[in-house]
Design brief:
478 residues; alpha/beta; Amidase signature (AS) enzymes; 15 helices; 13% strand; globular
């Protein structure tokens, strides 16, 4: 059994303060267990033993001196491999960066370690965070710990899998169009996409800069809220990070949702598998019994979200990925004889199929004659989707919906059908386009014993209400 089984951030902190175990002891046991179990899922790409043990010893030293060891004292955690870690390999799950060692830490990583968090390793993901199944990694797919023949979701599948597998207590992922919420749903854990700007993107490898978020995974709402509390807040290194004050998220976890108005958008239940829909509606009934008022609402521009999202994100991706050309960061083609050959051959050999597909789509929609017809129009649709949510939140405090139309699918099932794969994001990309906070909380299992997630969305910077609703449901359902 995992040394982390049943442990939470709070229980680890209290265990350390009561001298039941040391942070170093817990780190050593976790690293050994992760090394033994990782071949089953391929969730970790790199284990960081030296760094983890150094941080753990620092936590133990603070406790010995009677100092505050931090909110994440001794907590074994993992970081998605698109988030930079100084001196620790960061590959973005791509051949191009197979040996890249960053010279600095992401702001979120700095804040984790300042709070006493122990980074066990870097997690596998879809290459450059592009995918919905974690099958696009250059280092092999991640397998879902719940059912090893199934995908864990993407692109943050590795970060979800390590928490579900008990090889980390919490983890960091990134979300561009659902890459935290969908893996959380598929793996039966909690995942949070905060408001755009709530968490600094400094040190996050850019996929689509206007859509990218860093967010937490955990087994409980409280753990996810605690982790977000640590990493949230203004950062001078990221001009898009917000100066909005960060409230005490855990203080709102009182289990009380009486009088909270919760919207149920009809558009999110079209094409929903009955088994998934049954679990979501059962969760809605739990919230109703807790005293929440369920209100039918409409988000009329939802039907245009997939098209708008895949224009905006591919356009931004084509620009952001232009830097990976063999000149500075990346593995360079050995056979090139001219600069043009070096660019072409390096990118051809280094990028996987999904990255190439998105770069080509993005270059096309930004090209002369097509910018207005595609990219500009997609941004207008994005504004309409944002307005839908703004108007909805004039009627309700939160919105609940499915995370995915279906539970985790089998490895290889959709890999040859990109359109079917893109459609799996249909319920998550709207929140991403609007930049609002959204999360997935487990709401039962299908007849095949596969997890289902309940999505909760709230207005900009109102993560407090989102956590309040999630925690109330979690307490009642368990």
């Amino acid at each position: 059994m995992s040394p982390l089984h049943g442990l939470t951030i709070d229980s680890i902190r209290s265990g350390l303060l009561e001298k039941k175990f040391s942070a170093e002891e817990l780190a050593k046991q976790t690293l050994a267990y992760a090394e033994a179990e990782n071949p089953k899922t391929n969730a970790y790409l790199t284990l960081s033993s030296e760094r983890a043990l150094k941080t753990a010893r620092e936590v133990d030293a603070k406790i010995a001196k009677g100092e505050d060891p931090g909110a994440l004292a001794g907590v074994p955690l993992a970081v998605k491999d698109v988030i930079l870690t100084r001196g620790l390999r960061t590959t973005c799950a791509s051949k191009l960066l197979a040996n890249y060692i960053p010279p600095y830490d992401a702001t979120a990583v700095i804040r984790l370690e300042q709070a006493g968090g122990v980074i066990v390793g870097k997690t596998n993901c879809d290459e450059f965070a592009m995918g919905s199944s974690n099958e696009n990694s250059a280092f092999g797919p991640v397998r879902n710990p719940v059912a090893l023949d199934r995908v864990p979701g993407g692109s943050s599948g590795g970060s979800a899998a390590v928490v579900a597998q008990d090889t980390a207590v919490v983890s960091l992922g990134s979300d561009t169009g659902g890459s935290i919420r969908q893996p959380a749903s598929f793996c039966g854990i909690t995942g949070v996409t905060p408001t755009y700007g709530r968490v600094s993107r400094y040190g996050l490898t850019a996929f689509a800069s206007s859509l990218d978020h860093i967010g937490p995974f955990g087994k409980t709402t409280r753990d996810a809220a605690t982790l977000l509390q640590v990493i949230a807040g203004r950062d001078e290194m990221d001009a898009t990070s917000a100066a909005a004050p960060v409230p005490d998220y855990t203080a709102a976890l009182d289990g009380n949702v009486k009088g909270v108005k919760i919207g149920l958008p009809s558009e999110y239940f079209d094409g929903l598998a009955s088994d998934t829909g049954d679990r979501v509606m059962a969760a809605v009934e739990v919230l109703r019994k807790l005293g929440a008022e369920i209100v039918d609402i409409h988000l009329p521009h939802t039907a245009y979200a997939i098209a708008a999202y895949y224009i905006v994100c591919t356009a931004e991706a084509s620009a952001n990925l232009a830097r990976y050309d063999g000149v500075r960061y990346t593995t360079r083609s050995a056979e090139a004889h001219t600069l043009a050959e070096m660019y072409r051959m390096t990118r051809d050999e280094g990028f996987g199929d999904e990255c190439k597909r998105r770069i080509m789509l993005g270059a096309y929609v930004l090209s002369t004659g097509y910018y207005d017809a595609y990219y500009l129009k997609a941004q207008r649709v994005r504004n309409l989707i944002t307005r839908d949510f703004t108007q909805a939140f004039e009627q309700v405090n939160a919105i609940v919906a499915p995370v995915s139309p279906f539970p985790a699918f089998k490895i290889g099932e959709k890999v040859n059908d990109p359109v079917a794969m893109y459609l799996s994001d249909i319920y998550t990309i709207t929140g991403s386009l609007a930049g609002i906070p959204c999360m997935s909380v487990p709401c039962g299992r299908t007849r095949e014993n596969l997890p289902v997630g309940l999505q909760i969305l709230t207005r900009h910077f109102d993560e407090t209400t989102m956590f309040r609703v999630a925690h109330a449901y979690e307490m009642a359902a368990n």
